[in-house]
């Protein structure tokens, strides 16, 4: 039998991926182009992700990692069997919107797309793996960008709700856990990648971003309502790219700066979780002359349809100082912060802070008092495949072990209510920020390199066997 730990008996151990980073098959089964299909690897990637360069201006030989990715589209049975072998209780993945509504404008869904996900979900259920679905993980049909300017327009709210209705009905009773938007706050950092926003000359960027945010928040609330109407058992979550800001020093100015930086992020899920714009956000908009165009019913929709759980990704904490001369802001997961002298960092410069996970969990739980779900965490690292087909990824095991320990302390010692833990990229996949394959997170190695060479064969890493044990013992 299972030993006791402070975690729920039905704790959802698993792993997480996203369609755009692993499926490939970018035009298979009637799929339309998604935003991510025009985001290249290489020197133009940042400018495209930021919405500052038009993808039509990319060179003809640009390489798009999403087109094939790790071909989970063709390999999902084998991949799910490996997840089952590790003992996954759940698997978090996303639907590619443009597989189901190729342009986003259709009134009826593409049956082939729905059928693909139905088979996929049935395969998970065969092994008793609970599907946890991200409805929109960094990709929307490109047509919605070209014709409506993406989330600038309320027409995209209608398209999203149509999409949600199709999937909630089709997978009713099979999928219970849903997330409306992956890392909704990414809109403020990488607007094209996060939300399909491209800037035009003369745009007031903040105005555009907050209007898009508002439209996404309304869409999220409408989806929550629909999910609950269709089946009261459905659980809908928001999803935040989390990681608390630390003040660089105890100088009150630094502490105040950290409060402000945290609010930039919490704004989104404050609305999704509490149902209204917080006062600090109203004042911020007012002082920056940002006018949000609201529909008559919007405030009511937001108020009446808050989320059931708070999902988040956590890779690192962040640091801010009120004094710009203290340190160069550096990037980690698209969020600028300065170096924390007390923390080691990954090969990609992301700072490693397990206690920061416990701190972030406490902040979130104190703020919302709703169950939390850690739906991303992990270490992107260079792996070496040995002659015998194994990978000694002790560094990954060390990272995950420390974070799992901190997570259990937050539950056992602080009383945080936690639904589950799904480390990111449980199988190697394309990196979102860099487009690389070299930056690997998986328990399963996939033979492919940055340029697209490799036979896509899967290999079990040392961490595969380690994670299987962790799940078996419910974290002990
Ligand atoms: C999160 C995203 O930002 O971090 C994922 O939700 C992403 O899509 C993950 O892959 C890790 O980031 P990266 O840039 O290392 O792939």
TrEMBL record:
Write out the GO cellular component annotations: cytosol
Active site per UniProt: 376
InterPro entries the UniProt entry points to = GH, GH_1_N_CS, Glyco_hydro_1, Glyco_hydro_1_AS
| GO terms, molecular function | 6-phospho-beta-glucosidase activity
So what EC number does this one have?
3.2.1.86
Q: Which UniProt keywords are present, listed alphabetically?
A: Glycosidase, Hydrolase
Pfam families assigned to the protein according to its UniProt record, in alphabetical order: Glyco_hydro_1
PROSITE patterns per the UniProt record, alphabetical: GLYCOSYL_HYDROL_F1_1 (PS00572), GLYCOSYL_HYDROL_F1_2 (PS00653)
Q: Which domain of life is it from?
A: Bacteria
Q: Does the keyword 4Fe-4S apply?
A: no
Any keyword Phosphoprotein? no
Q: Name one GO biological process term.
A: carbohydrate catabolic process
* Family the entry assigns: Belongs to the glycosyl hydrolase 1 family.
The protein's name: 6-phospho-beta-glucosidase
* Species for this entry: Cellulosilyticum lentocellum (strain ATCC 49066 / DSM 5427 / NCIMB 11756 / RHM5) (Clostridium lentocellum)
């Amino acid at each position: 039998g299972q030993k006791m730990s402070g975690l729920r008996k039905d704790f959802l151990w698993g792993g997480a991926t996203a369609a755009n980073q692993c499926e490939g098959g970018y035009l298979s089964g009637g799929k339309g182009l998604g935003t991510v299909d025009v985001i290249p690897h290489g020197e133009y990637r940042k400018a495209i992700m930021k919405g500052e360069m038009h993808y039509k201006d990319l060179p003809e030989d640009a390489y798009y990692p999403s087109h094939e990715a790790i071909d989970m589209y063709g390999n999902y049975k084998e991949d799910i069997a490996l997840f089952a072998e590790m003992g996954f209780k759940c698997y978090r993945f996303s639907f590619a919107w443009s597989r189901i509504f190729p342009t986003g404008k259709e009134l009826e869904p593409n049956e082939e797309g729905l059928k693909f996900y139905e088979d996929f979900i049935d395969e998970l259920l065969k092994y008793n793996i609970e599907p946890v679905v991200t409805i929109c993980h960094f990709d929307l049909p490109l047509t919605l960008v070209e014709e409506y300017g993406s989330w600038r327009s309320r027409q995209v709210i209608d398209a999203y709700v149509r999409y949600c209705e199709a999937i909630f009905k089709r997978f009713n009773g099979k999928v219970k856990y849903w997330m409306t938007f992956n890392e909704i706050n990414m809109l403020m950092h990488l607007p094209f990648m996060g939300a399909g926003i491209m800037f035009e000359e003369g745009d007031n960027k903040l105005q555009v971003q907050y209007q898009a945010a508002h439209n996404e928040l309304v869409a999220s609330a409408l989806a929550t309502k629909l999910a609950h109407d269709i089946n009261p058992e459905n659980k809908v979550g928001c999803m935040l790219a989390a990681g608390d800001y630390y003040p660089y020093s105890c100088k009150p100015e630094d502490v105040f700066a950290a409060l402000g930086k945290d609010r930039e992020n919490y704004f989104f899920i404050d609305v999704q979780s509490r149902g209204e714009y917080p006062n600090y956000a109203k004042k911020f908009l007012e002082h920056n002359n940002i006018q949000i165009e609201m529909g008559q019913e919007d405030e009511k929709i937001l108020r009446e349809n808050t989320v059931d759980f708070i999902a988040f990704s956590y890779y690192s904490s962040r640091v801010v100082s009120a004094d710009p001369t203290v340190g160069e802001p550096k990037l980690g997961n698209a969020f600028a912060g300065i170096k924390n002298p007390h923390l080691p960092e990954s090969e990609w410069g992301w700072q490693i802070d397990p206690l920061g996970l416990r701190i972030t969990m406490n902040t979130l739980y104190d703020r919302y008092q709703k169950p939390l779900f850690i739906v991303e965490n992990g270490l992107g690292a260079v792996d070496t495949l040995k002659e015998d087909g194994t990978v000694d990824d002790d560094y990954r095991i060390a990272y995950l072990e420390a974070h799992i320990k901190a997570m259990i302390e937050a539950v056992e010692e602080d009383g945080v209510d936690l639904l589950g833990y799904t480390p990111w990229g449980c199988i190697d996949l394309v990196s979102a920020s860099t487009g690389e394959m070299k930056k690997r997170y998986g328990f399963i190695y996939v033979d492919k390199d940055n340029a697209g060479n490799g036979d896509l064969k899967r290999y079990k890493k040392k961490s595969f066997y380690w994670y299987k044990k962790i799940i078996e013992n419910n974290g002990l």
